[in-house]
Design a protein that fits this description.
Layout (H helix, E strand, L loop, with lengths): L2 H23 L4 E6 L9 H14 L4 E9 L1 H12 L7 E8 L2 E8 H11 L3 H17 L6 H21 L1
Parallel strand pairs: 1-2, 2-4
Antiparallel strand pairs: 3-4
């Protein structure tokens, strides 16, 4: 049996275990997806939800509530200006309300993700997953201010993106 197939099966078992533990403890983490963008429909909620819960569990953390809010470039720019005094476009802004268990809001610019995906020649959904896990990794405690922190963040993003693909 190939190593990648074994890892995929281990990840699937891990996902199933997390679901069962949450059911037994009646502690279903709340991860919600919100959008009012007319031309955007997030279609992979169930698979993404399981994956994000597994990411948090793999990092030995717990979730109280995380909201993913999908916005336009202009809407996220307004958030960036109003709350962070930054006057530039960005792909994601995370506001953590609590660290243990994790609670917070992750704002994502769908326009910026589309542009990034096109410039990187990646499928939109792949870049969207990267941005989603990036915001969550901030809540877990990973930074991206220094070159060293960025390298660790990118490594974690790649690791968990690969596990999403393996779990399908």
């Amino acid at each position: 049996m190939s190593s990648s197939l074994t890892k995929a099966r281990q990840w699937k078992c891990f996902l199933i275990s997390i679901r069962l533990i949450n059911q037994d403890l009646d502690q279903t983490p709340r991860i919600l997806f919100h959008t009012e963008i007319p031309d955007f429909q997030f279609t992979e909620e169930e698979a993404t939800l399981s994956w994000l819960i597994a990411v948090v569990a793999a990092e030995s953390k717990a979730i109280e509530a995380v909201n993913y809010i999908f916005l336009s470039d202009d809407e996220l720019l307004q958030v960036n200006q109003e709350y962070l005094n930054h006057d530039y476009y960005t792909d994601v802004i995370s506001f953590q309300l609590a660290s243990e268990p994790i609670e917070g809001d992750i704002f994502i610019s769908v326009d910026r993700v589309r542009e990034n995906a096109a410039s990187l020649d990646l499928p939109f959904i792949q870049e969207l997953r990267r941005i989603m896990v990036h915001g969550l990794l901030h809540f877990i405690g990973y930074g991206d201010k220094t070159a060293e922190e960025k390298a660790v963040m990118t490594q974690k993003e790649d690791e968990y993106l690969a596990k999403y693909t393996e779990s399908l």
